[in-house]
Amino acid sequence: MFRATRPTTPLMSVTGSTLVLASASAAPARTRVRTRAPGPYARLFALPGTRGFTAGNLLARLPMGMFGVSAVMMIAGQRGSYALAGAVTATGLAATALVAPWTARLVDRYGQARIALPATVIAVLGSLSLILCVRTQAPAWTLFASYAATATTPNIGGMSRARWTRLLPPAEHHTAMSFEQAADELCYMLGPVLAALLCTAAFPEAGTLTGAVLLLAGMLVFTAHRATEPPATGAPAAAHGPSPLRALLPLLGLFLATGAVFGSMEVASIAHLAALGLGGASGPVLALQAAGSCAAGLLYGTRRPRSLGTCLVALAAAMALPWAAAATGSLPLLALALLLAGMATAPVMVTAMALVQRATPRGRLNEGMSLAVTAILAGIAAGSATAGLAVDRLGSTAAYALPAAAALLALALSGATTRFIRIVPAGE
Q1: How high is the pLDDT of residue 12?
Q2: Rounded-to-integer distance, Cα 110 and Cα 415, Å
Q3: pTM of the predicted protein model
Q4: pLDDT, tens digit, for every residue of 66-77?
Q5: For the purposes of burial, counting CB atoms within 10 Å of the CB of 189, is it exposed (0-12), middle (13-18) or buried (19 or more)?
Q6: Which among 166, 177, 189, 149 is positioned nearest to 61, based on CA atoms?
Q7: Confidence of residue 25 (pLDDT cuts 50, 70, 90)
Q8: Deepest in the core among 22, 238, 280, 318, taking most CB within 10 A?
């Protein structure tokens, strides 16, 4: 039985002066290679130096979620007073709010490596002094002084965002800012867990000591990558246009309200779980909120950015979910509600930080970012205090109304924010 074969078309080629006929079957087969375009995050880290400074950034940023928890556990464990521990950490927060913008202004003027590294050394010495004072039963005022010295810690997130702004065209800033927000959430999710583990499994000072080592090591790696560092202005801040405080004033109220969302949600959740006899679940349940924000931040970076008003509408709606879930008394429902609420926060922060970047006068971006972070910290403190009062007087379920109210306030402020804020052109 014969099988029909398709005739092959001869191919011609010339070798020297000889014409050679070859069958098509002898020709090498052509294969189509499909190449996938790199994703938005792959494009970010394809740039020279970005992986290096990001590694240092993450290493130095992780302690930001460790120091507060570590200090409370260390001081309370050695001195037996949560009131003293809370007062010391509150003092450090207040000192940071005052010092951080000035540190950032010096970073803009003289460069990241020249200012951030010495400022980090001072902060690390403050942490080591706190450990020594706690161990040696030094007077209480030495604890306040030592922890206040850590306020010189540079805003590593702001410095990293400034590098991305310099390296990338404006069209790609959205992806970079989304990554930075996800990194914030990841570090604030893992930091407290690591701190608590070290302080309980090793020794009470282990969390603070480890945080200090990570901060210094990360800052050394970050500042070693000088090629990606924004150029220093080398001139007094007044020579670079109006103060960022004046330029960002419409936005700072919004950041204050957003910080109140975070602070009140944390206190309400801890109190509600304790009232249900599930205090041990506070860490994992709150970590779900941070995990949701981290995942949403990464996803948002691959999508077209939305307006601030749209993001705040979603936030206000999402913040009502934990309030409704708490009324049912169901832990799984509350965990799911916190996960969804966390997913609504990242787009708001990414979009608002993009406005900070666009409205801050040229050459003062670190200072502008620090002002935004200071407003958030102040909002967290106010939200925590207000939620504590609400828990004592109205109960933990009613306290969940505060995050929803703060989100609505942020939404109301967004109209004034977009109306009065001035966007600085790229060349200004």
Answers
A1: 44
A2: 36
A3: 0.72
A4: 888 788 888 888
A5: buried
A6: 189
A7: very low
A8: 318
